[in-house]
Design goal:
The protein is α+β, with helices and mostly antiparallel strands and 365 residues long. The protein has helices at 4-7, 10-30, 55-83, 88-109, 113-123, 129-149, 151-154, 178-193, 196-203, 228-235, 263-269, 275-282, 288-298, 307-317; strands spanning 38-39, 42-48, 51-54, 157-165, 215-219, 246-248, 252-260.
Length: 365
């Protein structure tokens, strides 16, 4: 399979053809509207407010709007297909997911659901729902492999926590109040005499994570959806360590435990599911571009000298070249130690999870 992508590079080049065919079809269906009119030898596609729009200008604008997305969609699919085998398990999972997506659209839109589903699917660049869901699974696996290969650099951790909320969130004090101290002492006593999970079940004030022994899930240094103070303290922990009380301006006071900080322990803790897939679906959605590009290189990518296509692909994936200085974006801070789960896709809306001490159930368990 190592030379598949190189030997079948036409699969990627189909992206260009796909974009051109789509644009030509739109042009072809409109070219007769001002039949016979030309400007500087070019056919006029249409006129707006007495301004002529020629075929080449129309083509350029459509390519800018749609061509790059089409190239990226087919490139990612080519890499996913070359790098990950389509197993029966993947097919069965996609079929089950498709049934659920269809049911969700039916519940939302009734008898008109199909048109809404088709429209949503078109935005992903696919026409077949199961094919789209198969590719999503493969891309998750490609990204999960990348995460595992960069385990130490990403500072991957599996984390549990106990929350003691502020007594009055509208009037936060710099030091714990007597009421907060009493609840924190109850937690400390429970930790001294029993397990972290038991203490979380009995005393954590986060209703979403407490029933699961305080388990948050698998995070890394890019988990920007987490409260910044919480994330900093969690990443500093070694395997088996429990933090002192960590004060979060957004929530209250946390005791945080690192239940895994090595590949061996993480995988032993998660025998029922792939922990790296959990990570990239839930807490680090920033890795896919680099993962796909690295996989393409491993498969023997060859652009046959087409530097424009190569730059388009790299730009779409967010790959920064050596000559381009990388801008450092400020970390996005949200109002929750855990907020958004798997990013929603238009065709397959996912439920979010937020062990905020407020509501939703956590994912990645």
């Amino acid at each position: 399979m190592g030379n598949f992508l190189k030997k079948n590079w036409f699969v990627v080049l189909v992206a260009v053809a796909f974009a051109c065919i789509s644009i030509f079809y739109i042009y072809d269906t409109n070219k007769g509207k001002l039949k016979g009119k030309k400007v500087n030898g070019e056919d006029v596609v249409y006129e707006i407010n007495k301004e002529d729009v020629t075929a080449s200008a129309f083509y350029d604008e459509l390519y800018k709007a749609n061509g790059q997305n089409a190239i990226l969609t087919l490139f990612e699919r080519a890499v996913a297909d070359a790098g990950i085998e389509t197993t029966n398990e993947i097919k069965d999972t996609a079929a089950a997911q498709a049934r659920q997506v269809i049911a969700n659209f039916q519940n939302s839109y009734g008898s008109d659901y199909q048109s809404y589903l088709d429209s949503a699917l078109a935005e992903t660049g696919y026409t077949d729902l199961e094919e789209y869901l198969i590719t999503v699974q493969k891309l998750n696996q490609v990204t999960a492999e990348y995460a595992k290969a960069n385990f130490d650099d990403l500072k991957i951790r599996q984390i549990s926590y106990i929350l003691v909320k502020f007594e009055d969130s509208a009037n936060i004090t710099e030091e714990p109040t007597d009421d907060e101290k009493a609840r924190m002492k109850a937690v400390d006593d429970a930790l001294a005499s029993g397990s972290f999970a038991d203490a979380a079940i009995a005393h954590s004030e986060d209703d979403s994570s407490a029933p699961n022994g305080g388990e948050l899930g698998i995070i890394d240094k890019n988990s920007a959806s987490l409260d910044s103070q919480f994330l900093e303290a969690a990443l500093a922990l070694k395997e088996g360590e429990t933090s002192d009380w960590v004060r979060s301006e957004n929530f209250g006071y946390f005791r945080i435990m690192c239940t895994a900080a090595t590949i061996e322990t993480l995988e032993a803790n998660n025998t029922d599911s792939d922990p790296y897939v959990q990570l990239v679906q839930t807490y680090d959605t920033s890795l896919e571009g680099n993962a796909v590009w690295e996989k393409a290189q491993a498969l023997g990518i060859d652009f046959k000298g087409d530097t424009a296509l190569e730059e388009t692909v790299k730009s779409s994936l967010g790959i920064i070249t050596e000559s381009e200085p990388e801008e450092t974006a400020a970390p996005e801070e949200t109002s929750s130690p855990e907020t958004t789960a798997e990013p929603e896709t238009t065709a397959e809306p996912e439920e979010t999870s937020a062990p905020e001490g407020e509501s939703s159930d956590s994912e990645g368990k």
